[in-house]
Design a protein that fits this description.
- This protein is an alpha/beta fold and 697 residues long.
- It has four domains: 139 residues, no CATH class; 101 residues, Rossmann fold (3-Layer(aba) Sandwich); 199 residues, no CATH class; 214 residues, no CATH class.
- It contains 26 helices and 16 strands.
- A hairpin with a 5-residue loop joins strand 13 and strand 14.
- Helix 1 runs antiparallel to helix 4 and helix 2 packs across helix 3.
- It is extended.
- The two termini are 51 Å apart.
Length: 697
Amino acid sequence: MNNLKRYTLYFINMIDIVSIVLSYWTALLIRKSPVFFRNRPLYMRDNYDKFLLITIIAYIVYNVLFLYSDDRFVKRNAREEFSAVIKTMGYILLITVVFLYFAKMGETFSRLFVAIFFGVFFIVNFALKQLLKQLIKRVYVSGAVSEKVLIVTKKALVCDAVKKIRNDVDWRYMISGIVITDEDLKGESIDGIKVISNREDMFADIAEWDVDSILILHDNDEGISTIKQWMHQFRKLGKIIHVHVPEYELYDSFHTMDTVGDYAVVTYRVYSPMPRRQQLFRRIVNFIGALVLLPVYAVVYLIVALFTAIESPGHILISRVRVGKNNRRYWQYRFRVFRTDAKEREAQGKSPYTLIGRFLRTSHLDGLPMILNVLIGDVAFVGPKAPNLNKYLSMTSRERNVLSITPGIVGYWSLEKEQEKITKDEGNYIGHWNILKDMEIIALMILRYVAGKSLRIDGDTHLQEEYDFIEEIKRLREPYHYSKTYSRPQTFGYFLYHFIKRVFDILLSALALVVLSPLFLILTVLVMGDDGGSPFYAHERIGKDGRRITVFKFRTMRMDAGDLTKLLTPEQLEQYQREFKIDDDPRVTNLGNFLRRSSLDELPQLFNVLGGTMSFVGPRPLIEDEMKFYGDEVSKLLSVAPGLTGYWQAYARNNATYETGERQKMEMYYIDHQGLLFDLRIILKTIGTVISGEGAQ
């Protein structure tokens, strides 16, 4: 908020509070006067004092939620002021009535008293604001309390400067005189304002002139060194200095002055930004709303899970990538509405939907899981539309700029079809947000739903994404195909070893997760704080018997690590294709480098151990492309569960490579000699290796 808005708001606040107090006393005198209301006793005076306090609190709430700035106050005509006072009175009345209802104080105050109070408030508030505007204009014209400012500029710029200052009715300043720097017009007048000096004599003349501040208006032809010299001389005279910044007016878009570090900058935005306290309040309201609806979601989830399990077992929720606030990606959650064999059924001319899925889609309840997104903070109940990646790439810059706030489950985009109008409405929503706008949009959506006229924007895109999600899940469920030439030993000792090993995995991983939970929290915060991305990284690997498993780690790489050709040199790319590892990997963050060298990045794999997809000791879990290095021994490699650590990790780590064949030999050696004592040796060796950092990368 600039200074003019702030000062104006101070005056408005004072007028409104004074209006409330005067209206209270006037209504109280009228209500208890026997001249107007005979035989109507007034209730306890103390209760009416409470009414004064309640209305003042209601005004403060209104002011915090809606009245952040009012720079048009002085410029408003009587009709516009009439509407503004009605709006203020209406909000105070609404908040007061809501409070009285929930506090069960509705019968405490006479309805007649309340009506008199707000009637008097309207008259007093309107009259005081009109009087204040007349007073401000007189002060502006007379300059009695205004800051007397002297304009220093070129002749070509002076008329426009005077016009802008006068038209803005900025009552804080009065133009006291002019200095023309490119012509000698001393003694003349421009638009009724005297030219007091020229470039050569201005410092001597200004020293004798009645002026509070200097406004230097220049174009890019005037050198910075010259401006600095002028400023130095004006400071010696004890004057306040205002310097025009030509770059400030390069674009017609919303622009503000700010600082980045020690640099003074001009910040340009397509739309007026939503004030931070509005963003905070909007976030609080959405979080509370999501918490209130969470039990509803839980009940619906259980019902959907039951019907889905009966008809088409599989994932209850699906997740899709969306672009959210400040163009960051997030996962959007919805209920699955298709059967797992949706494509096959469509090919046969049958419905791809589950019975519960068809109901969810028709009723729009398939989007109910987005309550989870609201809780997380990725989404609000009302806001701009969150596009998918393809849609985002085709959006105009103006459409992208509405994503300066969190997107919404509903919004203007769900009420309109014309994109130009949607973009305009969303820009207005960002610059002039209040909670009533959200309530209005939600109410309109409900009315459309009841009338059967609700819109499904991008419905086909959503369906295709769900098709793709289901196909990806089916692909992940298909095991890795290989020739099973190796058969595991069928001895009692072998089965006893694996039984004990599994019990050990469960007990130790559960204990470690509990003990290390503070460390998990700290590392999660550090990774998120490093670049704002997700703290975890999930990667598909091949597990025991060829099952595809998801292995979890703390993320150690940059968010754009997938762009190999951009980040890697040809030599590094060749090494990656050969070894699937890179010396001095440029994709690894500074924090990620520490996590890798300390092996802390692999702590989340304790969840894999607890779940049974991994063990504490075993061969390293591999991606599908690495299977080619094991040739005919793939069957033997996949006969045991992969490990959090293993013979290769503990005794060689990155010092034994695929190229030399040492890594494959070490993994096979472990499988041939696995046992409880060998596992214990490997665990102890791993601890020593991690501490020393031997072979780490």
